[in-house]
Write a structure and sequence with these properties.
By secondary structure, the protein is mainly beta. Helices cover about 10% and strands about 50% of the residues. It has 1 helix and 19 strands.
Length: about 240
């Protein structure tokens, strides 16, 4: 009988171990329902031609309230368009590029990018845009996710001019693009450097030192976000890095 019990216990333990290994571990305190968000619209076939929007849902997956912040980055945008962030029950004006908000335990809220395609109310302009929303957990600033919005719009006229991404705090990464390593041009206030992939997952972390080189040979070719934090883990700036 003891041998039978021992055998059964081993089988149960094996099943539990297999389930633990097979089940993915999710340490992220919030989840995004759709990422990237792709929007394709023909304005000439709809009644309301002055705006287009794309949306996703953010959910607090913890048992505590979350203090979060969204930050809008217009990577590429026709000059005749304006954008606004709508969601979590508040409408923001185009002039606001970042805002803090709170989610209760288990609560979900909408986050949307609104494109105003007819700012003069006489011509609905088409074009293409790439816009990111950086979502940051303010209780743990190293936890962040990038929600990518892509818009392809057909209108009465095309607005071809676009505004490229500009690094907001003028942080210097060089060389950029790069194949193996890069340096920082100004490290006066920075204590930690974190590199994120295009979906906002942190993949490399470095302590910041004067004249230090940061190696990225193991990364695949593509676009990455570099964020600097001070000694109190407060984010200082975000920049883009291209791995060749």
């Amino acid at each position: 009988m003891p041998n039978i019990i021992c055998t059964l216990m081993k089988k149960v333990f094996s099943i539990l171990l297999l389930a633990a290994v097979s089940s993915p571990m999710h340490s992220q305190s919030f989840t995004i329902s759709e990422n990237p968000v792709n929007v394709e619209v023909n304005l000439t076939s709809q009644t309301n031609q002055n705006e287009v929007w794309g949306e996703t849902m953010i959910t607090n997956s913890t048992t505590e309230s979350l203090n979060l912040k969204w930050e809008r980055i217009e990577n590429e945008l026709p000059n005749c368009w304006l954008t606004s962030v709508f969601g979590v029950w508040i409408q923001y004006t185009p002039q606001i590029s970042q805002q803090e908000f709170e989610l209760a335990p288990g609560e979900s809220g909408m986050l949307a990018i609104t494109i105003f395609t007819d700012t003069e109310w006489n011509t609905a302009y088409g074009g293409e845009a790439s816009i990111d929303l950086l979502i940051t957990n303010l209780d743990d600033p190293t936890e962040t996710e990038t929600v990518e919005f892509y818009f392809s719009v057909i209108g009465e006229a095309e607005c071809l001019l676009s505004t490229p991404f500009v690094e907001r705090d003028q942080i210097t990464l060089y060389p950029n693009p790069t194949e193996k390593l890069f340096r920082l041009g100004n490290t006066a206030k920075a204590s930690k450097l974190v590199i994120y992939d295009a979906r906002g997952k942190s993949i490399l972390k470095y302590d910041v030192r004067v004249n230090e080189s940061y190696r990225i040979e193991e990364l695949e070719k593509g676009l990455y976000l570099v964020r600097l934090f001070d000694v109190n883990s407060e984010m200082l700036t975000t920049a883009r890095l291209v791995k060749r």
